[in-house]
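Fold it.
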Amino acid sequence: MKTRITELFGIEHPIIQGGMHYVGFAELAAAVSNAGGLGIITGLTQKTPADLANEIRRCREMTDKPFGVNLTFLPVLKAPDYPGYVKAIVDGGVKIVETAGNNPQKWLPGLHEAGVKVIHKCTSVRHSLKAEAIGCDAVSVDGFECGGHPGEDDIPNFILLPRAAEELKIPFVASGGMADGRSLVAALALGAEGMNMGTRFMATKEAPIHDNVKQALVAASELDTRLVMRPLRNTERVLRNAATDALLEKERTLGASLKFEDIIEQVAGVYPKIMKDGAMDAGVWSCGMVAGLIRDVPTVKELIDRIMAEADAIIHQRLAGIAAR
């Protein structure tokens, strides 16, 4: 399948693995790239630029296919060593970067000079247009269904994707609610050039996370996510657990007086305990509504091959059959 996204990134299938904290290690990124998609290493999971450089080297040992690095620009007073992370990406020969969070404009000239293509994560049409205007090569349009931060507009992909298609000139992929061949065909029909999957790739054999997390995704339904930190305008979609319930109770009782410090126990530094140790109630963790469509834990290749076969059957059999009537 050829789209503007496969052509832009030099990949076989229009499927991207999104950056995920303490999930996007070399093992998963290489598996996705080897299966024909675009694997992504999560930059800030690596504590230092030197650690990221090492993770890039590890990924190169596992795949000769294109892969990228996610770099999230955080709105914090003490920022990570972003110049060091960008240098590690460029020196490592990585040619694709997924940016997220704050505006990446100041980093684009250096990345483009090094021949790096940039895809920026956006949760609205206006932010997507801004990404296009500053020179991003593509955008990932994240609907309200997505795990992690869906923005504050609450627009689901059935509206957001065609609106993006109406406005954008650069290619974009759909993110949020993406799980299978049906998702891919729907995304293409709505104007996207491919899809970005996060939560679905967590439930694969190569995802380097605890099996407790994978089994929680298989067991979850589409009703099992919650939105937290809405009063702080830092909304995050997470899987419901004891920590989620405790956080939401604090939001209810504290109301307008809620501060980040009040919920720090549930949100700060919890990912290693959950993803590595399998302590499922140690804190809140990002999860999309797409958990309701996860039934198994296949290999990455099995998952991508299945998606592409299902998409092909929908396009050439079901839809072609309907159109021929």
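The chain has a mean pLDDT of 97.
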